Protein backbone atom coordinates (compact mmCIF):
# COMPACT_ATOMS: atom_id res chain seq x y z
CA UNK A 1 0.00 0.00 0.00
CA UNK A 2 1.33 3.40 -0.94
CA UNK A 3 2.15 5.85 1.82
CA UNK A 4 -0.05 8.87 2.47
CA UNK A 5 3.06 11.04 2.21
CA UNK A 6 3.29 10.26 -1.50
CA UNK A 7 0.40 12.68 -2.02
CA UNK A 8 2.57 15.46 -0.66
CA UNK A 9 4.16 15.33 -4.11
CA UNK A 10 2.10 17.81 -6.21
CA UNK A 11 2.48 15.70 -9.36
CA UNK A 12 1.20 12.57 -7.63
CA UNK A 13 -1.63 14.58 -6.07
CA UNK A 14 -2.68 15.98 -9.46
CA UNK A 15 -2.54 12.55 -11.12
CA UNK A 16 -4.63 10.91 -8.40
CA UNK A 17 -7.23 13.69 -8.25
CA UNK A 18 -7.54 13.64 -12.07
CA UNK A 19 -9.66 10.49 -11.76
CA UNK A 20 -10.81 10.81 -8.13
CA UNK A 21 -12.33 14.30 -8.33
CA UNK A 22 -15.09 13.54 -10.90
CA UNK A 23 -16.19 10.52 -8.84
CA UNK A 24 -16.32 12.52 -5.60
CA UNK A 25 -18.12 15.44 -7.31
CA UNK A 26 -20.83 13.23 -8.82
CA UNK A 27 -21.26 11.36 -5.51
CA UNK A 28 -21.55 14.69 -3.68
CA UNK A 29 -24.33 15.95 -5.96
CA UNK A 30 -26.24 12.64 -5.92
CA UNK A 31 -26.03 12.02 -2.15
CA UNK A 32 -26.78 15.63 -1.15
CA UNK A 33 -29.71 15.93 -3.57
CA UNK A 34 -31.11 12.60 -2.34
CA UNK A 35 -30.77 13.61 1.32
CA UNK A 36 -32.32 17.05 0.87
CA UNK A 37 -35.23 15.81 -1.27
CA UNK A 38 -35.84 13.04 1.26
CA UNK A 39 -35.74 15.48 4.15
CA UNK A 40 -37.80 18.23 2.54
CA UNK A 41 -40.50 16.19 0.82
CA UNK A 42 -40.76 12.90 2.66
CA UNK A 43 -40.38 13.57 6.40
CA UNK A 44 -43.36 14.29 8.67
CA UNK A 45 -43.73 17.51 10.68
CA UNK A 46 -42.55 17.36 14.27
CA UNK A 47 -45.31 17.59 16.90
CA UNK A 48 -43.64 20.60 18.54
CA UNK A 49 -41.49 22.19 15.81
CA UNK A 50 -43.92 21.71 12.93
CA UNK A 51 -42.30 21.91 9.49
CA UNK A 52 -39.26 23.84 10.83
CA UNK A 53 -37.80 20.44 11.73
CA UNK A 54 -36.89 20.17 8.02
CA UNK A 55 -34.26 22.89 8.56
CA UNK A 56 -32.23 20.36 10.56
CA UNK A 57 -31.20 18.65 7.27
CA UNK A 58 -29.27 21.80 6.35
CA UNK A 59 -28.30 23.13 9.74
CA UNK A 60 -26.69 20.06 11.32
CA UNK A 61 -24.60 18.97 8.29
CA UNK A 62 -23.45 22.56 7.65
CA UNK A 63 -22.50 23.14 11.31
CA UNK A 64 -20.73 19.78 11.44
CA UNK A 65 -18.71 20.59 8.32
CA UNK A 66 -17.92 24.11 9.57
CA UNK A 67 -16.21 22.58 12.60
CA UNK A 68 -14.68 19.60 10.78
CA UNK A 69 -13.29 21.87 8.04
CA UNK A 70 -11.36 23.80 10.67
CA UNK A 71 -10.10 20.57 12.22
CA UNK A 72 -8.97 19.37 8.78
CA UNK A 73 -7.18 22.73 8.34
CA UNK A 74 -5.57 22.18 11.75
CA UNK A 75 -4.20 18.76 10.73
CA UNK A 76 -2.99 20.12 7.37
CA UNK A 77 -1.38 23.11 9.10
CA UNK A 78 0.43 20.83 11.57
CA UNK A 79 1.70 18.72 8.66
CA UNK A 80 2.99 21.91 7.04
CA UNK A 81 4.66 23.16 10.23
CA UNK A 82 6.28 19.81 11.02
CA UNK A 83 7.06 18.30 7.61
CA UNK A 84 6.93 21.36 5.29
CA UNK A 85 4.76 19.68 2.64
CA UNK A 86 3.38 22.42 0.37
CA UNK A 87 0.32 20.44 -0.69
CA UNK A 88 -0.94 20.28 2.90
CA UNK A 89 -0.63 24.07 3.33
CA UNK A 90 -2.44 24.60 0.02
CA UNK A 91 -5.17 22.12 1.01
CA UNK A 92 -5.73 24.09 4.24
CA UNK A 93 -5.99 27.28 2.20
CA UNK A 94 -8.48 25.65 -0.19
CA UNK A 95 -10.65 24.42 2.69
CA UNK A 96 -11.12 27.82 4.35
CA UNK A 97 -13.76 29.35 2.01
CA UNK A 98 -15.77 26.11 2.14
CA UNK A 99 -15.65 26.13 5.94
CA UNK A 100 -16.64 29.81 6.00
CA UNK A 101 -19.68 29.19 3.77
CA UNK A 102 -20.68 26.17 5.89
CA UNK A 103 -20.47 28.40 8.98
CA UNK A 104 -22.67 31.04 7.30
CA UNK A 105 -25.23 28.37 6.36
CA UNK A 106 -25.17 27.08 9.95
CA UNK A 107 -25.68 30.60 11.33
CA UNK A 108 -28.45 31.56 8.87
CA UNK A 109 -30.43 28.32 9.15
CA UNK A 110 -30.04 28.44 12.94
CA UNK A 111 -31.41 32.00 13.03
CA UNK A 112 -34.30 31.16 10.68
CA UNK A 113 -35.19 28.17 12.89
CA UNK A 114 -34.62 30.07 16.14
CA UNK A 115 -36.97 32.94 15.35
CA UNK A 116 -40.19 30.87 15.42
CA UNK A 117 -38.94 28.31 17.99
CA UNK A 118 -37.02 30.48 20.50
CA UNK A 119 -38.71 33.76 19.63
CA UNK A 120 -35.40 35.37 18.64
CA UNK A 121 -33.05 35.35 15.65
CA UNK A 122 -29.97 35.50 17.83
CA UNK A 123 -28.88 35.10 21.44
CA UNK A 124 -25.43 35.51 23.01
CA UNK A 125 -25.53 31.86 23.94
CA UNK A 126 -22.13 30.09 24.41
CA UNK A 127 -22.56 27.84 21.39
CA UNK A 128 -23.85 30.54 19.05
CA UNK A 129 -21.21 33.01 20.16
CA UNK A 130 -18.31 30.57 19.77
CA UNK A 131 -19.68 29.67 16.32
CA UNK A 132 -19.76 33.34 15.33
CA UNK A 133 -16.16 33.73 16.55
CA UNK A 134 -15.22 30.68 14.47
CA UNK A 135 -16.67 32.47 11.42
CA UNK A 136 -14.56 35.55 12.21
CA UNK A 137 -11.49 33.28 12.43
CA UNK A 138 -12.34 31.92 8.97
CA UNK A 139 -12.49 35.47 7.59
CA UNK A 140 -9.19 36.34 9.30
CA UNK A 141 -7.55 33.18 7.94
CA UNK A 142 -8.68 33.90 4.35
CA UNK A 143 -7.64 37.56 4.64
CA UNK A 144 -4.20 36.63 6.00
CA UNK A 145 -3.50 34.26 3.08
CA UNK A 146 -4.48 37.03 0.63
CA UNK A 147 -2.46 39.69 2.41
CA UNK A 148 0.93 37.89 2.44
CA UNK A 149 2.78 37.64 -0.85
CA UNK A 150 5.38 35.02 0.09
CA UNK A 151 3.58 31.63 0.11
CA UNK A 152 5.81 30.03 2.78
CA UNK A 153 5.42 32.97 5.17
CA UNK A 154 1.68 32.96 4.46
CA UNK A 155 1.50 29.24 5.22
CA UNK A 156 3.47 29.68 8.49
CA UNK A 157 1.37 32.56 9.82
CA UNK A 158 -1.99 31.09 8.81
CA UNK A 159 -0.98 27.77 10.41
CA UNK A 160 -0.41 29.58 13.71
CA UNK A 161 -3.76 31.37 13.34
CA UNK A 162 -5.36 27.99 12.67
CA UNK A 163 -3.91 26.56 15.90
CA UNK A 164 -5.37 29.46 17.90
CA UNK A 165 -8.77 29.25 16.16
CA UNK A 166 -9.01 25.54 16.93
CA UNK A 167 -10.00 26.46 20.47
CA UNK A 168 -13.21 28.01 19.09
CA UNK A 169 -13.82 25.10 16.72
CA UNK A 170 -13.81 22.76 19.73
CA UNK A 171 -15.77 25.23 21.86
CA UNK A 172 -18.50 25.62 19.25
CA UNK A 173 -18.94 21.84 19.31
CA UNK A 174 -18.90 21.34 23.08
CA UNK A 175 -20.01 24.76 24.42
CA UNK A 176 -23.45 23.46 25.42
CA UNK A 177 -21.76 20.71 27.50
CA UNK A 178 -19.06 22.96 29.02
CA UNK A 179 -21.36 25.73 30.25
CA UNK A 180 -24.55 23.72 30.54
CA UNK A 181 -26.60 26.84 29.84
CA UNK A 182 -27.92 28.93 26.95
CA UNK A 183 -30.66 28.44 24.40
CA UNK A 184 -28.92 25.96 22.13
CA UNK A 185 -29.61 22.32 22.92
CA UNK A 186 -26.95 19.61 23.08
CA UNK A 187 -26.08 17.23 20.26
CA UNK A 188 -28.98 16.37 17.94
CA UNK A 189 -27.50 12.92 17.36
CA UNK A 190 -25.92 10.75 19.97
CA UNK A 191 -24.73 7.18 20.30
CA UNK A 192 -25.83 7.21 23.94
CA UNK A 193 -28.88 5.11 24.83
CA UNK A 194 -32.22 6.90 24.68
CA UNK A 195 -31.33 9.19 21.76
CA UNK A 196 -34.05 11.62 20.95
CA UNK A 197 -34.34 11.54 17.18
CA UNK A 198 -36.58 9.12 15.30
CA UNK A 199 -35.18 7.19 12.32
CA UNK A 200 -37.70 8.99 10.05
CA UNK A 201 -35.43 12.03 10.54
CA UNK A 202 -32.15 10.30 11.29
CA UNK A 203 -31.89 8.47 7.95
CA UNK A 204 -32.19 11.58 5.71
CA UNK A 205 -30.02 13.52 8.18
CA UNK A 206 -27.20 10.96 7.92
CA UNK A 207 -27.55 11.08 4.12
CA UNK A 208 -27.23 14.88 4.15
CA UNK A 209 -24.22 14.69 6.48
CA UNK A 210 -22.45 12.32 4.08
CA UNK A 211 -23.47 14.56 1.16
CA UNK A 212 -22.08 17.72 2.79
CA UNK A 213 -18.88 15.82 3.61
CA UNK A 214 -18.53 14.86 -0.04
CA UNK A 215 -19.22 18.45 -1.14
CA UNK A 216 -16.44 19.58 1.18
CA UNK A 217 -14.05 16.95 -0.17
CA UNK A 218 -14.86 17.76 -3.82
CA UNK A 219 -14.36 21.49 -3.30
CA UNK A 220 -11.15 21.05 -1.30
CA UNK A 221 -9.69 18.81 -4.02
CA UNK A 222 -10.73 21.35 -6.69
CA UNK A 223 -9.32 24.24 -4.68
CA UNK A 224 -6.05 22.44 -3.89
CA UNK A 225 -5.49 21.68 -7.57
CA UNK A 226 -6.04 25.37 -8.33
CA UNK A 227 -3.65 26.46 -5.57
CA UNK A 228 -0.97 24.05 -6.83
CA UNK A 229 -1.25 25.54 -10.34
CA UNK A 230 -1.26 29.10 -9.00
CA UNK A 231 1.85 28.35 -6.92
CA UNK A 232 3.61 26.83 -9.94
CA UNK A 233 2.82 29.88 -12.04
CA UNK A 234 4.15 32.17 -9.30
CA UNK A 235 7.35 30.11 -9.04
CA UNK A 236 7.87 30.14 -12.84
CA UNK A 237 7.27 33.89 -13.00
CA UNK A 238 9.76 34.45 -10.17
CA UNK A 239 12.34 32.25 -11.94
CA UNK A 240 11.83 34.22 -15.14
CA UNK A 241 12.32 37.51 -13.36
CA UNK A 242 15.57 36.23 -11.81
CA UNK A 243 16.94 35.06 -15.18
CA UNK B 1 -45.80 17.82 -5.03
CA UNK B 2 -44.89 20.65 -2.65
CA UNK B 3 -45.35 19.50 0.96
CA UNK B 4 -47.70 21.46 3.20
CA UNK B 5 -45.29 23.49 5.36
CA UNK B 6 -48.10 25.18 7.30
CA UNK B 7 -47.37 28.46 9.09
CA UNK B 8 -43.60 28.06 8.77
CA UNK B 9 -43.53 27.83 4.97
CA UNK B 10 -41.58 31.09 4.57
CA UNK B 11 -38.91 30.11 7.13
CA UNK B 12 -38.36 26.59 5.77
CA UNK B 13 -38.39 27.59 2.09
CA UNK B 14 -36.07 30.55 2.62
CA UNK B 15 -33.61 28.41 4.63
CA UNK B 16 -33.42 25.93 1.74
CA UNK B 17 -33.18 28.58 -0.99
CA UNK B 18 -30.46 30.60 0.76
CA UNK B 19 -28.40 27.50 1.67
CA UNK B 20 -28.61 25.96 -1.80
CA UNK B 21 -27.84 29.34 -3.37
CA UNK B 22 -24.71 29.69 -1.25
CA UNK B 23 -23.53 26.14 -2.02
CA UNK B 24 -24.08 26.55 -5.78
CA UNK B 25 -22.37 29.95 -5.81
CA UNK B 26 -19.39 28.51 -3.90
CA UNK B 27 -19.07 25.55 -6.28
CA UNK B 28 -19.29 27.83 -9.34
CA UNK B 29 -16.64 30.14 -7.90
CA UNK B 30 -14.25 27.20 -7.25
CA UNK B 31 -14.75 25.81 -10.75
CA UNK B 32 -14.44 29.23 -12.46
CA UNK B 33 -11.27 30.13 -10.54
CA UNK B 34 -9.80 26.71 -11.27
CA UNK B 35 -10.40 27.12 -15.00
CA UNK B 36 -8.98 30.65 -15.04
CA UNK B 37 -5.78 29.65 -13.23
CA UNK B 38 -5.35 26.59 -15.45
CA UNK B 39 -5.80 28.70 -18.61
CA UNK B 40 -3.32 31.30 -17.33
CA UNK B 41 -0.74 28.61 -16.44
CA UNK B 42 -1.10 26.93 -19.85
CA UNK B 43 -0.64 30.27 -21.62
CA UNK B 44 2.37 31.11 -19.43
CA UNK B 45 4.05 27.74 -20.05
CA UNK B 46 3.37 28.01 -23.79
CA UNK B 47 4.94 31.48 -23.87
CA UNK B 48 7.97 30.22 -21.93
CA UNK B 49 8.31 27.29 -24.36
CA UNK B 50 8.30 29.60 -27.36
CA UNK B 51 10.86 31.91 -25.78
CA UNK B 52 13.09 28.91 -25.06
List the topology elements:
The complex is a heterodimer of chains A (243) and B (52).
Chain A: H1 10-41, H2 56-83, H3 86-118, H4 126-147, H5 151-179, H6 199-242
Chain B: H1 9-51
Protein model, in words:
- The complex is a heterodimer of chains A (243) and B (52).
- Chain A is globular, with a radius of gyration of 20 Å.
- Chain A has helices spanning 10-41, 56-83, 86-118, 126-147, 151-179, 199-242.
- Chain A has one domain (10-181, 199-242).
- In chain A, helix 1 packs antiparallel against helix 6 and helix 3 (86-118) packs antiparallel against helix 4 (126-147).
- With 243 residues, chain A is an all-alpha fold.
- Chain B is mainly α.
- Chain B has a domain at 25-52.
- Chain B is 83% helix and 0% strand.
- Chain B contains 1 helix and no strands.
- Chain B has one helix at 9-51.
- The model of chain B has no long low-confidence stretch (mean pLDDT 92).
- Chain A binds chain B through residues 36, 40-41, 45, 50-52, 54-55, 58-59, 62, 97-98, 101, 104-105, 108-109, 112-113, 115-116, 215, 219, 222-223, 225-226, 229-230, 232-233, 236-237, 240, and chain B through 1, 3-9, 11-12, 14-16, 18-20, 22-23, 26-27, 29-31, 33-34, 37-38, 40-41, 44-45, 48.
- Chain B: Belongs to the CcmD/CycX/HelD family.
- Chain B: Keywords: Cell inner membrane, Cell membrane, Cytochrome c-type biogenesis, Membrane, Transmembrane, Transmembrane helix, Transport.
- Chain B: The chain crosses the membrane at residues 12-32.
